[in-house]
TrEMBL record:
Domain Guanylate cyclase: 61-159
Species, as recorded: Anopheles atroparvus
A Gene Ontology biological process term: receptor guanylyl cyclase signaling pathway
CDD domains linked to this entry: CHD
Stated name of the protein: Guanylate cyclase domain-containing protein
Location of this chain's protein in the cell: Membrane
Pfam families xrefs: Guanylate_cyc
Classification via InterPro entries: A/G_cyclase, Cyclic_nucleotide_synthase, Nucleotide_cyclase
Transmembrane segments: none
UniProt xrefs under Gene3D superfamilies: 6.10.250.780, Nucleotide cyclase
PANTHER family listed in its UniProt record: GUANYLATE CYCLASE (PTHR11920:SF462), GUANYLYL CYCLASE (PTHR11920)
Keywords on record: Glycoprotein, Lyase, Membrane, Nucleotide-binding, Transmembrane, Transmembrane helix
Length: 159
């Protein structure tokens, strides 16, 4: 009887350990998602259960871009190739914008949106975005589409 209880206890301990590990993995995934979707200051407040007060930012500069002829390019690609193209491009862009005082708001399809002056107020927000835009334009000129190496990539940029 004692051996059966000990075995049962050991099984429960192992089950609890496994479930705790799974919970930790899911918690980390949730935090990563939260940090990708929100500015870090907002994400931290939410994780602590604090209220996030709305703020007004009177001066910001916003960058928008998309790929010229993206629909035509995508028509010559498999779905996986489209995903690879965008992943390669945005990995390059994400590395480039790290040199600037900017915040990537979102990417939807071939659209890329970045802001400066938000969530951290930046007096030279327009200069940050303009210089970053020129840098991204330069990067896109050197960018090679893996499966269409002869097709140049052109960006349409709005500030």
């Amino acid at each position: 009887m004692f051996q059966m209880l000990e075995k049962y206890s050991n099984n429960l301990e192992e089950l609890i350990r496994e479930r705790t590990e799974l919970l930790d993995i899911e918690r980390k995934k949730t935090e990563q998602l939260l940090n990708r979707m929100l500015p870090s200051s907002v994400a931290e407040k939410l994780k602590l259960g604090l209220a996030v007060e709305p703020e007004e930012f009177s001066e910001v500069t916003i960058y928008f871009s998309d790929i010229v002829g993206f629909t035509t390019i995508a028509a010559h690609c498999t779905p996986v190739q489209v995903v690879d193209l965008l992943n390669d491009l945005y990995t390059c862009f994400d590395a480039t914008i790290n040199a600037y005082n900017v915040y990537k708001v979102e990417t939807i399809g071939d659209a890329y949106m970045v802001v400066s002056g938000l969530p951290v107020r930046t007096p030279d927000h327009a200069e940050q975005i303009a210089t970053m835009a020129l840098d991204l334009l330069s990067q896109s000129g050197h960018f090679k589409v893996r499966h269409l190496p002869g097709v140049p990539l052109q960006l349409r940029i709005g500030l």
